[in-house]
UniProtKB/TrEMBL annotation:
The keyword Translocase does not apply. It comes from the Archaea. The chain crosses the membrane at residues 15-33, 40-59, 79-97, 104-122, 134-152, 209-233, 253-277, 284-301, 307-324, 345-364, 422-440, 452-471, 477-495, 507-525. Keywords: Membrane, Transmembrane, Transmembrane helix. This is DUF2206 domain-containing protein.
Length: 662
């Protein structure tokens, strides 16, 4: 008996049910962690995992007497729902224009429209399902969600985008050469900036409008790539469900309005995933594999973090190949299923090529006075040596008010905001767990779905596992939108299985939770509403009014936009975060986050006050050196012993009077 036969002999006869039992035991073992840490995922993931495993085990014990499948809506209702989605989308546009922002009412209507869309997908019969009609609604709703924010918001949305457009792309356009950013890490990954500059020159429009005409329009349309991937795995109805779930993803929405190289990297990543799944599932030729290589190269030339995430995906594909070559899994050609039989594809050569190309580029990419490769490795080494530790948790948004509030416990609004931010992701995790259990069945095992499983598992380690040990060097916030692609695909596979195997009433409840809850919580999540957070006292708004933008540029003109190296520390402008980043990233004036205490005015010589500091969530540095949300009255920022040297309807710049210093 050889080694493979020995391994197979000791494995359970059904790996899927064995894995479900193991998952249930793991959920039970992890449950007590909630008593040692208050982190939301530690409290909820064991419950999600346990629920998924229990439902899968129930579905595995099939009773032919039960009525399976999802209930269907009547033809009249199915004819009405698309009209309601279109009307809701139009109402969203009107609300955004009338209010001048994506208001709470806007998000309420968006959640209702999303529910109507998911209801059409989930509760339509085979004959009544109209693929083209559904996909058009998905793109329409996705476009309205994103483009409304871009249209009504002055300037740009987000923090990093100001650097990419006003400085990097602006310098390239002004100089007419890439050498204008030779000292920046994007010098070796310039596709985003070159696309924006080229669009600006060809269309003869400003850089901001060029960005929106290129990537801004591409982001909602690129969602259809998820459908093309899913359609290689499941029937069109379930492929449409995966597409809709992905389109509502909060981080996917974020990169559709905060359009930076991560956004372009996400589009190209979807292209990589499509061609990877296609070459694994079909009889491909040189053209298909060449396009796969082309897309992986484009990712590398666009964004460093996206490149690393792509390597994880390719590594997952190679891991799936190695596992399937063990012959632990076998599939009868007579077994009917959506997965077609194909020999595993060895992508070690592609992985080696991309890893080598990345190492080569990063070895001379400038970053913080050294090469990008050396710098990130030194940062990782420093983290491992100084701050890594078990349950050394950090919130998903970095520094926050959480540390300050920990002693008195979260308020009701804080608790609601936290669960709104996480429920959508937890629903995807639930569907993913079910989908993973389904594909590990020996008779269903294929490299394509195993790649999705392995990629999801590895990426979850980076976004949830490593931060539990204080390791956030891989910028986990940038991973979620990429992670949503395999999660949405596996969720569609998992829900499809439950719809086939579970009692109709049980599966209807599960799917109805997705239909009613998922769209609303995702569109209201803080990550998808950075332009105007629903919980305005919990999250900082990463967009600015015309007056706030004009103030930053005018102050730069007044002062001649001095270089920070030529100023003393007391000559720096101090204001809130994120407003201080607007001064820095537009090159207007060196700025930093103001330091505050519990009640006394700030002591900085040059300060900038804006109404947002009093009325909504803005960050300041507390006495412990930690950023926290504070509402600060004007007199604590612009003090009586200061002179107001600039003022408009929303912003004041104050300077300590020389007479006072004397």
């Amino acid at each position: 008996m050889n080694a493979q036969q020995t391994v197979r002999r000791w494995l359970p006869s059904r790996l899927d049910t064995g894995a479900a039992v193991a998952g249930l035991l793991m959920a039970i073992a992890l449950f007590p962690l909630r008593f040692f840490a208050s982190q939301i995922y530690i409290k909820t993931i064991p419950l999600v995992l346990g629920s998924a495993c229990i439902l899968y085990l129930i579905a595995s014990v099939r009773d032919d007497s039960t009525v399976n499948g999802l209930p269907t809506l009547s033809r009249d209702v199915l004819r009405l729902l698309p009209i309601l989605v279109v009307v809701s989308s139009a109402a969203m546009v009107v609300i955004a224009v009338e209010h001048g922002e994506r208001s709470v009412l806007f998000f309420d209507v968006a959640g209702v429209a999303g529910t109507l869309l998911l209801a059409q997908i989930a509760f339509s019969g085979k004959k009544s399902f109209n693929r083209t009609q559904i996909l058009l609604q998905i793109v329409l709703l996705a476009a309205v969600l994103r483009l409304s924010a871009l249209y009504v918001t002055p300037g740009l949305i987000g923090i990093d985008i100001w650097t990419h457009i006003t400085q990097l792309a602006g310098n390239i356009k002004a100089a007419g050469t890439l050498e204008a950013i030779a000292d920046n890490k994007h010098y070796t990954s310039p596709l985003y900036h070159l696309l924006v500059v080229a669009t600006s020159l060809l269309a003869d429009v400003p850089l901001r409008l060029a960005l929106y005409l290129s990537l801004g329009l591409a982001m909602p349309v690129a969602i259809l790539v998820v459908f093309t991937i899913a359609n290689l795995l499941v029937e069109p109805r379930w492929a449409a469900l995966a597409t809709a779930l992905f389109s509502f993803g909060d981080y996917v929405i974020e990169w559709g309005i905060h359009i930076i190289p991560t956004s372009m990297g996400l589009i190209l990543f979807l292209g990589v995933l499509y061609w990877l799944v296609r070459v694994m599932r079909t009889d491909y030729g040189l053209r298909e594999f060449g396009l796969l290589v082309l897309f992986t190269t484009a990712v590398i030339l666009t964004h460093q973090v996206s490149s690393f995430i792509m390597l994880v995906l390719l590594g997952a594909g190679l891991a799936a190949y190695l596992v399937l070559k063990l012959s632990i899994f076998s599939r009868s050609p007579l077994d009917p299923d959506v997965f077609r039989v194909r020999n595993p594809l060895n992508i070690a050569g592609l992985l080696a090529f991309d890893a080598g190309f990345i190492t080569f580029l990063w070895s001379f990419t400038p970053y913080n006075g050294n090469s990008f490769l050396v710098t990130v490795l030194s940062y990782l080494q420093e983290t491992l040596a100084s701050s890594a530790g078990v349950l050394n948790l950090a919130g998903p948004s970095g520094g926050s008010a959480g540390a300050a509030a920990a002693s008195q416990g979260p308020t009701l609004i804080e608790t609601v905001a936290t669960y709104v931010d996480t429920i959508g992701f937890l629903l995807l995790l639930f569907g993913t767990f079910v989908g993973c259990l389904y594909v590990v069945n020996r008779q269903r095992a294929q490299q394509s779905v195993f790649t999705l499983l392995a990629a999801s598992a590895i990426m979850l380690v980076f976004v949830l596992g490593l931060p539990m040990f204080g390791i956030r060097n891989f910028i986990p916030q940038r991973w979620f939108a990429f992670l949503y692609a395999p999660l949405a695909l596996l969720t569609a596979i998992g829900l499809r299985h439950l719809a086939i195997e579970l009692d109709r009433r049980t599966v209807a409840v599960v799917v109805l939770i997705f239909v009613l809850v998922f769209p609303s919580v995702m569109v209201m999540s803080s990550n998808g509403t950075i332009d105007n957070p629903v919980f305005e006292n919990q999250e900082a708004q990463l967009s600015y009014t015309e007056a706030e933008i004009d103030a930053a540029y005018t102050i730069g003109e007044m002062t001649g936009s001095p270089d920070g190296d030529n100023l003393r520390p007391d000559q720096v402008v101090f204001t809130d975060h994120p407003y201080q980043t607007l001064f820095m990233r537009t090159g207007s004036y060196p700025a930093d986050t103001a330091r505050i205490n519990d009640s006394e005015p700030v002591t900085h010589d040059i300060t900038v006050y804006r109404q947002e500091q009093t009325e909504a969530a803005t960050y300041f540095i507390n006495s412990n050196g930690i950023g926290e949300i504070r509402n600060i009255p004007q007199q604590r920022i612009c003090r009586s012993n200061q002179a107001v040297i600039y003022s408009n309807s929303a912003v004041e710049m104050c300077v300590t009077s020389p007479a006072t210093d004397a």
